[in-house]
Amino acid sequence: MRPSRLLWACCLCVLLAIPVSPSAQDQSGSVAGVDQDGVQRMRVIGGNYFLKPNRIVVKVNVPVELVVSREAGIVPHDFVINAPEAGIAVDQDLSTDTKGITFTPTAVGTYPFYCKKRLLFFKSHREQGMEGILEVVR
After folding, report:
1. Domains with residue ranges and CATH for the chain
2. Are 71 and 105 in contact (CB under 8 A)?
3. How far, in Å, CA of 66 to CA of 53, rounded?
4. Interatomic CA distance for residues 40 and 62, integer angstroms
5. Taking 60 as the threshold, does the pLDDT of residue 78 lie above it?
6. What Rg, from alpha-carbon coordinates, does the chain have?
7. CA 58 → CA 75, 101, 116, 119, distances in Å?
8. Complete edge-to-edge strand list for the sheet that includes strand 55-59
9. What is the H or E stretch that residue 106 is in?
10. C-alpha angle 33-46-118 in degrees, rounded to nearest 5
């Protein structure tokens, strides 16, 4: 192989090996669908400092079930929504097994969800981008 081709091949391998940061990935919002039983359901996955989707839209006064889990790994994560003004109080550790979180939002608005975990003196997972918005609409 000629040296220039070898250089291009090495550069391509390096570029393919660089992980894409979660903020650069497609994390557009998702509208929770209402199932036949009248419950809005949405799947949420946490991982290496991301929550996907990072924007969830639900209807006010309609029950919500978020089915949450995390990717495999040793770093612990959780899922928090602290919005008592909307009837929402969630603080759930995430595991590779799915867990259902249920609530009924009582007020229209936008409410942050995030991972509150932090390792010693490092930035919290939320400060590293592991957060999103729950948008409650009419």
Report:
1. 23-137 (2.60.40.420)
2. no
3. 11
4. 7
5. yes
6. 19
7. 29, 14, 23, 32
8. 30-31, 55-59, 131-137, 109-114, 77-83, 88-94
9. none
10. 135
Question: Over the stretch 11-66, which tens digit does the pLDDT of each residue have?
Answer: 433 333 333 333 333 445 699 999 999 999 999 999 999 999 999 999 999 999 99
Q: How far is CA 130 from the centre of its chain?
A: 7
User: CA 133, CA 52: separation in Å to the nearest integer?
Assistant: 11
* Nearest residue to 68 (alpha-carbon basis) of 80, 57, 84: 80
Amino acid at position 36, single letter: Q
**Helix, strand or coil, per DSSP, at residue 100:** strand
